[in-house]
Amino acid sequence: MSLTNLLNRFRTVSVHPTPSESLALSQLAPSILNLSITDTPEQWVLYESLLLSTLRTGDDTSARLILQRLADRFGNDNARIMALQGIYDECTATNQAQLEEVLKNYTEVLKEDPTNIPIAKRRITLLHHLSKKSEAISALTTLIDLNPTDAESWSQLAQYYFEISLYPQAIYCLEEVLLILPNAYNVHARLGEIHLVAAESIGSSASKEVVEKLEASLRWYLRAVELCDGYLRGYYGVKLVTGKLLDSKISAAHRTIPEEKVNKLNSVATVQLNDIVTGSEQGKKAFTGYDSAEVAAAKELLEATS
Amino acid sequence: MARSLPSKLLIAFSSILLAHACYSAHEHSLLSTTTTTTHDPLSSSSSPSFSSPHSSTIPSGSTLPLDITLETLLSVSLLLVGIVSSGWELKPISLRSYAGGVESGRILVDGKKGKGLFVGLEERAGFADVRKQRKEFTDWMKTQG
């Protein structure tokens, strides 16, 4: 297989691959390592992805070799190589004490150079991994103070807040992401999801606050489908939230969006979801991009409400 | 490129018209040069003045008959209309349709199925917890036996 073919195989897989995907990618290691080193950017990207795959599957000998080659080329003091070395150390640490040692290394590196962003992100991830969630959050806010235009950091902070049920903070962080990337329709959908979860976390199911949150959620979902035509996740949210708003338990007095509008939105979402579900079940070419699990979930929702 | 029948006919018709206009223009220029060359010896022998052949060649180049000019312009505009309306698929220029195409798999990014335009914001490679993924993989291997 050529370099481009190999690279394409890595590109089709996400950063969080399923175990079987990881295994398949990791097994490419010998063929990639046997290719002659051409010193092209593509090759080093391939090496980096392969390093992560081999570490996931526990092929530490290949990982060591890849890391060695990367370090020979870019030097041990390159920020990105340092982060990769850090991931290697994290993965090969066998006990808690060794992990603490890795963490101490990160802290020392950051003391010398607080602007080493990749290492700062590794340190935050490791803190979170060691269940020091509040420390991870405070380290991440420090990083954001240093680099406030990094959408990835804001998005991660939102995730950390979401995990500890601080929904208003999570929403604030995602709104910051939208200030940096106003067209990120998946972040709009995520905001819809968080508003929905926040609404459901409130005990009394028909209070004014719940209706407000549901309506906010609906607005975010609607913006998501406005930015992205045929967005399955967005239409799923629209259908789900309008269904909840139409629930008879919710009194009309709290609503700001008129009921007929909600009804109309519900039927539009139903039509769109139906199109997507039937299209992907028939295997039509224009519907091959949808995730099969998402399509199955949409089908379930349609069947539950019909 | 799949073309519809009316636009095919339009393209064919306007091409013929354009070719005809070119031919007419060519014939016209030939005609004017032959008339000047036949006129040339006569005028030079009859009168000592050189102004008359000059005055006949310069305007002959610039005064292309109006009908040929109009035919050319008309055929080119019809050809343009024919090509534009020939039913090819236009590339999306709005984010809404492009993002939708990538999500649904209609539009391929670099020749393969895209993962959405802003997927990096949710995958967050810089914060990937590889150690956790490694543990998940080990657990999965155990279930596989």
Describe this structure in words.
The complex is a heterodimer of chains A (306) and B (145). With 306 residues, chain A is mainly α. Chain A contains 16 helices and no strands. The termini of chain A are far apart. Chain B has 145 residues and is an all-alpha fold. Chain B folds into 2 domains: 5-84; 95-144, no CATH class. Chain B is built from 6 helices and 2 strands, in the order ααααββαα. A two-stranded antiparallel sheet of chain B has the order 1-2. At the A-B interface, helix 2, helix 4, helix 6, helix 8 and helix 10 of A face helix 4, strand 2, helix 5 and helix 6 of B.
Features of the shown structure:
heterodimer, A: mainly alpha, 16 helices, 75% helix, B: 145 residues, 2 domains, 6 helices
Secondary structure category of chain B: mainly alpha
Number of strands of chain B: 2
User: Into which percentage range does the β-strand content of chain B fall?
Assistant: under 5%
What fraction of the residues of chain A are assigned to beta strands by DSSP?
under 5%
What sort of overall outline of chain A do the alpha carbons produce when their principal axes are compared? globular
Structural class of chain A: mainly alpha
Arrangement of strands in the largest sheet of chain B: 1-2
| Quaternary organisation | heterodimer
Largest sheet features of chain A: none
Biggest sheet layout of chain B: 2 strands, antiparallel
- The radius of gyration of chain B is 34 Å
